[in-house]
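sanity check this fold:
=====
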Amino acid sequence: MDTLLRGGRVIDPGAGFDGPADVLITDGKIAAVGPGLDAPPGAAVVDVTGLVVGPGFVDVHSHVHSIAGHRMQAMDGVTTALDLEAGVSPIERGYAEAAQAGRPLHYGFSASWSGARAQVLLGVKTDARVSSSLAMLGNEAWRRSSSPAELTAWLSVLENEIAAGALGIGVLLGYAPMSDPAEFLAVAELAAKAGVPTYTHVRELTEVDPATPIDGSEEIARAAGETGAAMHHCHVNSTSGRHVDRVLGTMERARKLGSRVTLEAYPYGAGSTAIGAAFIAPERLRMRGLRPSNIIVVETGERVADEKRLLQLRADNPSAPCLMEFLDESQEADQAMLRRTLGFPDSIVASDAMPLFWPDGSYDSTEWPLPPGGSTHPRASGTFAKTLRLMVRESGAWTWLEAFRRCSYLPARLLDDCAPGARAKGHLGVGADADIVVLDPERITDAATYTDPLRPSVGVRHLFVAGTSVVRQGELQVDALPGQPLRGEAR
């Protein structure tokens, strides 16, 4: 059925348009945009007077590979959820499992650097499951540097994954911070040759660990400059902490020199990972100026008392999800630092949405509302609504046009060269995918908190994915699973 969205304020960052217009959806595509459009016979007409209509948000950093997680992100305005920082391994299994179960949102994955290394260095067979990925992050055995033969072997694994449709290479370098920098340069060379981006969780900064083999942000800039690869710096706020202004300066200089570096941020002062991660070790926390009390176990809510308890938790269950407070959101200076990071020119909004899980060990649910007792980081529920609240509604730092450029248009453009399907996303041009969010500009806000992370955002009135209604009048449509894969095309 055709759908006409009538009377809204339309924002199209692709055309730089912000004004009153109607939007016609036909066969999952944008058929027309303009004032006073006529509704085709039999079309559904949706009155969106007083609401903002724009391209759905493209989240390039989402670890929610589940129907439940996608539903939470749908209520936050997301229409495409991609796991590009960590990726999955093997890539074909990740796509196949998503297609078999169905997804409310579009989905896609990068090739997993950590998965490829684990296959070769540990001899393990990866299975693309979230639980397996978390377990591996807490395993020290794969973090070492590779021999020349091992390097050749896992680079070949990555090359095959790119040929199978991966959207670039996801590099969890911060989880193997002492590995040989020559390995990362080899990954950049492979990416440049294949014409795909890299998406990197960088290693430590020199301010944090003077013994690091190379400064994490400088490494991105140098590799991009030396190889010509398109290199994306993931969650620059959490990996940089209080040194973020220096890191942003490094990225700015690299851009001025012509390097293809991009970056992303999210609007929270706490990150989330497995408690066995290298940077959660007591000595690493001290280097960051943090204490064990800055670590919270997600499942139990326990705030870690001291180093002895932290070591015990890391030994007992290294894959247990935890929160790490790197900024104090109650302090205005730290809030201002978050806003500066979000406001950095062309900084992309990305959630780093963490998996949802329940005490019985499950990572998904088809119930809605979601069953009680589930846990995650609130950024899985509220990243985009919180960003709009902070940057548009409260501070006025962004116009609505700029907000959609950061949340929809720029993230989609990261993929233009490696995934032709991305070119139809992030804008409302005729022929674009009908991935559309309709929101209330006066009410859009996050509701999730660290203690109650599964509360859906407020203010998304409608959400269309490939022209199918996933949110209608603020209510999730539980029978809607229109998500389609976004895959790379090797050159």
Summary: The mean pLDDT is 95. The first strand starts at residue 3 and ends at 12. The two ends are 37 Å apart (CA to CA).
